[in-house]
Amino acid sequence: MKKLNIGMVGYKFMGKAHSNAYRALPMFFPDRLHPAMKVICGRNREAVASAAHQFGWAESSSDWKTLVSREDIDVVDINAPSNAHKEIAIAAAQAGKHLYCEKPLALSLADSREMLEAAESAGIKHMVGFNYRFAPAVILAKKLIDEGRLGDIYHFRGWFLQDWLVDPDFPLAWRLQQEIAGSGAHGDLGAHLIDMAHYLIGDMAEVIGMSETFIKERPLPSDSGALSATSGAAAEKGPVTVDDATLFMARFANGALGSFEATRFASGHRSTNSFEINGSKGSVIFDFERMNELQVYFTDDQEDVQGFRRVLATDSAHAYSGVWWPTGHPIGYEHTFTHAFVEFLDAIQEDRLPSPNFHDGVKCQQVLEAVEQSIKERTWIDVASL
Ligand code: SOE
């Protein structure tokens, strides 16, 4: 079996999630193309060497420029903070490497378009890390919609709620700095909801939003780790330059109405990622905390048994059944990444673009920016005008 040599830039939360996916892939998908975990790269030489050892990479490096130009690297996987994506992606594409890049693709729509352009003109395969598409229950929702079993779609309602910023002493991590993260809850959590809506419902025609930064200054961090920065340390504070919460409404091109809520201030919600879709023939509800289930309602059920049923997307009728464990045994967060990389490697082998790819990353960025413009101008924005 031919192997593809991976060079990965980033070694924290997503670096661990991606490494875990690469490791699981040959064991659970033995007849597919396999990844060889060649080089892991990061700025801190000692920390990245220790990650290489812990995650199972053959080598570590602190020089991404050398990594992307190495002859023996086939794929560059970028999961460093968002401000690093563009330069690395463009250099890697120009060196002919296939690209897997975490979301949000870039700090701005213009940057994401440049990345897409570089990837397309290099003729490489490119994928963006919207991993939640790969939960079997989400795939079931997609199937019900595509087969017309929910009828005409009227509503998409999405919410991604976290609470790690409620503590005012939580330090000014990189995710709270606009020049590194691009935006706050909007680009971090809202991006997942936007992609989910694109995947399940289709394009958005117009949007209007509002956002807030509830805590304007935070203690400077002792390290710049994302959710792991140590709390309450320094007396010196710096400004939070991103949104803590962003809400918006959308009108989809097919006439459906959407509402979206992304916040890091929803006390009690560690990471609630949910959506509900209502159509003329039924509804579905997905909640990532119960990711093996899809709540399904059909209007033509007999009246005396009408109501939401809990469908377990873990048996033989559903995606990836039999790949992991025997029917009925649940899977978790980490499996969504393995599924995403299976799609990526399959696409490389089959010489087609994977899905979601940089086009989807750009489309997401376009909505992110349209919402930001609507907030600034306090008006509806035509998404296609951007
Ligand atoms: C942190 O807010 C985060 O890890 C996001 O960056 C991820 O994309 C999301 O899946 C969970 O929350």
Topology:
Elements: E1 3-9, H1 13-28, E2 34-41, H2 45-55, E3 59-61, H3 64-69, E4 75-78, H4 85-94, E5 98-101, H5 109-122, E6 126-128, H6 136-146, E7 153-161, H7 178-181, H8 185-200, E8 204-212, E9 217-219, E10 237-239, E11 245-252, E12 257-263, E13 272-279, E14 282-287, E15 293-298, E16 309-312, H9 333-350, H10 358-377, E17 381-382
Helix pairs in contact: 1-9, 4-5, 5-10, 8-10
In brief:
By secondary structure, this protein is an alpha/beta fold. It has helices at residues 13-28, 45-55, 64-69, 85-94, 109-122, 136-146, 178-181, 185-200, 333-350, 358-377; strands at residues 3-9, 34-41, 59-61, 75-78, 98-101, 126-128, 153-161, 204-212, 217-219, 237-239, 245-252, 257-263, 272-279, 282-287, 293-298, 309-312, 381-382.
Structure report:
The chain has 386 residues and is α/β, with parallel strands linked by helices. It has two domains: 3-130, NAD(P)-binding Rossmann-like Domain (Rossmann fold, 3-Layer(aba) Sandwich); 133-354 and 364-377, 2-Layer Sandwich (Dihydrodipicolinate Reductase, domain 2). The protein contains ten helices and 17 strands. It has helices at residues 13-28, 45-55, 64-69, 85-94, 109-122, 136-146, 178-181, 185-200, 333-350, 358-377; strands at 3-9, 34-41, 59-61, 75-78, 98-101, 126-128, 153-161, 204-212, 217-219, 237-239, 245-252, 257-263, 272-279, 282-287, 293-298, 309-312, 381-382. The strands form three sheets. It has a nine-stranded mixed beta sheet. A six-stranded parallel beta sheet has the order 3-2-1-4-5-6, sandwiched between helices. The protein has a two-stranded antiparallel sheet with strand order 9-10. A hairpin with a 4-residue loop joins strand 11 (245-252) and strand 12 (257-263). Helix 4 runs parallel beside helix 5 (109-122) and helix 8 crosses helix 10. The protein is globular, with a radius of gyration of 21 Å. The structure holds alpha-L-sorbopyranose.
